[in-house]
Amino acid sequence: MNRTLLAAAAALAAIVLLGAGFAAGYVVAKRGESADVRGNATQEFVPTQAPAPKPLPGVAWPTWGFDATRNRVSPYAHKPPYRVAWTFRARTLLEFPPAIAYGNLYVTNNSGVTFAVDVRRGTQVWQRRSGRCAASSPAVDGKVVYQAFLNRPPCNSSRSPERLSGEVVAFDALSGRVRWRTEIGPTESSPLVHQGRVYVGDWRGTIYALDQRTGTVRWTFRTGGRVKGALAALGNRLFAGSYDGRLYALDSRTGALQWRSSSQDRLGGRGRFYSTPAVAYGRVFIGSTDGKVYAFGATTGDLLWSRSTGGYVYSSPAVWERLVYAGSYSGALYAIDAASGETAWRFAAGGPISGAPTVMGGLVYVATLGGRTYAVDARSGRRVWSFPDGQYSPIVADADTAVLVGRARLYGLRARQPLESAR
């Protein structure tokens, strides 16, 4: 081999080694950027949490997550053992739980049929077919039921969202009569009724403020990805996650951007936000497809902590007594310290968790994709009770009845003698 070839070979080897060094450095840097962030109680942490609002007259459970902060804490203290007082067959998948008001529960199945069901007896009061797919909870306010709908079947259409449509419909709560309907993009964003407006996001990445009385669009804001989860609110500030990996804070009155933050950078790109945010202790808590639960400052948007769970976190957090509860596709329910982000306890649920937990009577209720619902002690993570149905978000309630959401059935539970099938 002549000197020219030897020199070329040496130069190529040097380039390869240099490239390998850069690649190794890049990998190390990305791993460092994606490492969990530890928090503390000194930065944007309000140590006392305002009590959850009391239910309005006639409205027992008004919205997905109970109130605008989406903390998912029940004001009712039902506890097992339960008996099944009634069962309602919803025919197809129930991916999201009901709202309860005026003696009825309101729920929409995956096929887009909205039911009003007497919450004491479990009997149907009315139903309305949309001809669309649905994957969201209704909201109830002022004797009106607000429901968001996806595109027309097929429900898992791969067509561009720009070529599909969805809508938000306002039904009379007592009769089911349609009061108004507004077409937007396909939406699985459970409506937020707040300050006289209805807020939703859609697959086109747009957030809408609709007039509560008429459905008229008051303002819109465009994110960089699909908005699949619901919005949360505190005062005049709205919070929404997007599939662009960003969390947005908007002025609820104008739609003006207050701040925008992101999930952590990592190899393969940032995680996406399907989870609905929860607002508590001056912070915004949200899960990500990168397997983490995040805490951001509600005022600044600063990243305060992140905690890995080992699987996707589609689950929307519940927050109670300075703990953040979120399920993971790793098959575990996590209780995370709201100040530091440290894991307080971990419950192995035996199957992936996609839906949001609910706290009621000092217990955390969670369902798995394996088809079982659990109640665990909210302070220790000790298993207390289980039920052989459930898949997504497990339970809502009024003063007399706990309503457990099965895969395609609703169960009215009342605390009396032990439930034989649940042992």
Q: Pairing-aware structural class of the strands and helices?
A: mainly beta
Biggest sheet, strands in spatial order? 1-3-4-5-6
Q: Under CATH, the topology is which?
A: Methylamine Dehydrogenase, Chain H
Number of strands: 33
Instruction: Sum up the overall morphology in one term.
Output: globular
Rg over CA atoms: 23 Å
Number of separate structural domains: 1
What is the CATH architecture term? 7 Propeller
Can you offer a commentary on this structure?
The structure is a single chain. The protein is mainly beta and 423 residues long. It has a single domain, classed as 7 Propeller (Methylamine Dehydrogenase, Chain H), CATH 2.130.10. The protein has one helix spanning 3-33, and strands at residues 59-61, 83-89, 99-101, 104-108, 113-118, 124-129, 139-141, 144-149, 166-172, 178-184, 192-194, 197-201, 206-211, 217-222, 232-234, 237-241, 246-251, 257-262, 278-280, 283-287, 292-297, 303-308, 318-320, 323-327, 332-337, 343-348, 358-360, 363-367, 373-377, 383-387, 395-397, 402-405, 409-414. The strands form 8 sheets. A 5-stranded antiparallel β-sheet has the order 1-3-4-5-6, with no helix packed on it. Strands 2-33-32-31 form a 4-stranded antiparallel β-sheet, with no helix packed on it. The longest helix is centred in the N-terminal third of the chain and has 31 residues, at 3-33. The chain is globular and about 90 Å long. Residues 22-32 and 418-423 have low confidence and may be disordered. InterPro entries: PQQ_b-propeller_rpt, PQQ_rpt_dom, Quinoprotein_ADH-like_sf, WD40/YVTN_repeat-like_dom_sf. Residues 166-309, 317-409 form the Pyrrolo-quinoline quinone repeat domain. This is WD40-like repeat.
